Amino acid sequence: MALSVNTNVAAMVALQNLNATTRGLEVTQNRVSTGLKVMGAKDNSAVYAIAQGMRADIGAMTAVTASLNRAKSITDVALAAGESISDLLVQMKEKAIAANDASIDTNARAALNEDFRSLRSQISTIVQNAKFDGSNLINGSVTTGIEMLADADATSAITLTPENMSVSGSIITLTSSTALTTLAASSTALALVNASLQNVNSALARLGSVGKKVDAHLVFVGKLSDALVGGVGNLVDADMAIESARLQALQIKQQLGAQAVSIANSAPQIVLSLFQG
C-alpha cells in the first residue's frame, strides 16, 4: 500500500468499522432500555405486523373480559335475590301451614296473615332492587335476554336468560290478593306457595347454570389473554442476558475501534521521516 497524505485507506476502514460498532451499540442500548428487540417496523417488519395483530386481539380480550365481568355481576345479583326469595317462600309456607290449622282463633289467624303479607311484600321489594348497572333479570324488564360479548371478534355471545320472579307471574304464582284470612284461603295459599317455591328453585338452577357458564368462560378468556401476551413477548421481547453480554462486548469493541482509528490517522506521520536529512 502506497504512503499518501491525501488518502488514508486504513483510517477509512477503521472508521467504517467503528461506525458499524457504534450503530450496533445503539441498537443494543435501545433494547436494554426498552426491553424490546422489535420496537417498530424498521426492526423487523414481519414480526412487528404479527405482534401488532396480537396486541389488537389482547385489547379485544380486555373488552370481552369487561363484558363477562358485567355478566357475572348481573347474574350474581339475580342469584342472590332469588335465593332470598326462596328463603322468604319457605317462611311463607310455614305461615300457610300454620293457618291451615282449623283450631286457631281469629286473632292468631290475623297475625299469621299479617306476617304472610309482609313476607310477600318483601319479595316484591327484592325483585325490584335486584339490578346491577341498570339490568335486572328477575323483574320482567328483560324479555329476550341480555347478550354479552364472548369472543374478540364480537361474533358470539353468552345470553343471560331472564327469570321473572314478580308476584303474580309465571314463577311466583302468588297474587297480591292471596291471604290466610280463612281456612279455605289458607289451603289455596299453601298450594300457591308450594308451586312458587318449586318454580323459584328451578329458576335458580337455570340462573346458576348461566352463572357457571360465565365463570368458566371468564377463566378461558383469562388464559387466552395470558397466552397472547406471552406470544407477543416471545416475538418482541429482548433476552436481557444476551443483550447485557452484547453491550459489554460492543463497548470494548468501540474503544478498540477508536484506538484503531487513532493509529490509522497517525500513519501519515511516517511520511515526514522520509524527508528528514
Description:
The protein is mostly helical and 277 residues long. The chain has 2 domains: 9-35 and 238-274; 63-236, Up-down Bundle (f41 fragment of flagellin, N-terminal domain), CATH 1.20.1330. Helix content is 69%, strand content 3%. It contains 6 helices and 2 strands; from the N terminus they run αααββααα. α1 (9-34) packs antiparallel against α5 (240-266), α2 (45-99) runs antiparallel to α3 and α2 runs antiparallel to α4 (183-236). The longest helix is centred in the first third of the chain and has 55 residues, at 45-99. The radius of gyration is 39 Å and the shape is rod-shaped. It starts with 8 loop residues before the first helix and ends with a helix. The relative contact order is 0.17.
CATH class of the largest domain: Mainly Alpha
CATH hierarchy: architecture of the largest domain: Up-down Bundle
Kindly name the structural category: mainly alpha
CATH superfamily of the largest domain: f41 fragment of flagellin, N-terminal domain
Question: What's the β-strand tally?
Answer: 2
First-to-last CA distance: 24 Å
* Major beta sheet, strand line-up: 1-2
Mean pLDDT: 91
**Rg to the nearest angstrom?**
39 Å
Question: What profile does the largest beta sheet have?
Answer: 2 strands, antiparallel
Q: Order of helices and strands, N to C?
A: HHHEEHHH
Total of DSSP H or I helical runs spanning 4+ residues: 6
- What CATH calls the topology of the largest domain is f41 fragment of flagellin, N-terminal domain
Tally the structural domains: 2
* Shape field: rod-shaped
Helix content: 55-70%
Low-confidence segments, ≥5 residues, pLDDT <50? none
Strand content: under 5%
